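Whiteboard transcription, Tuesday session. T.W. wrote the C-alpha cells on the left side:
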C-alpha cells in the first residue's frame, strides 16, 4: 500500500477533464445575444443551439450575467 506521502493526488474527472461550461465558453457572445437581444428563454436557446439549458444557465451564473429578462407583453 501507500504511505501518507505516497498517495497520488486524484483530479476529479481525470487530468483531461473539461466542464460543460468550459466547452461552450467560446459561444458566450452568441448565447448572450439569444438571451438578451432575441429574448429567448434558456429552453428556447437549448433547442436552437443543441446545448442543455442548464449548461447555458450555469455558464451565465459563472460569468456573473443576469438571468432576468423583461419582455414586453402585448394584449
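and on the right, the sequence the group agreed on:
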Amino acid at each position: 500500500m501507500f504511505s501518507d506521502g505516497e498517495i497520488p493526488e486524484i483530479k476529479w474527472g481525470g487530468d483531461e477533464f473539461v466542464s460543460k461550461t468550459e466547452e461552450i465558453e467560446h459561444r458566450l457572445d452568441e448565447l448572450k445575444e439569444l438571451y438578451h437581444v432575441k429574448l429567448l428563454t434558456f429552453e428556447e436557446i437549448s433547442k436552437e443551439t443543441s446545448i442543455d439549458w442548464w449548461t447555458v444557465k450555469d455558464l451565465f451564473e459563472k460569468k456573473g450575467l443576469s438571468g432576468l429578462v423583461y419582455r414586453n407583453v402585448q394584449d
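Someone added at the bottom: The two ends are 72 Å apart (CA to CA).
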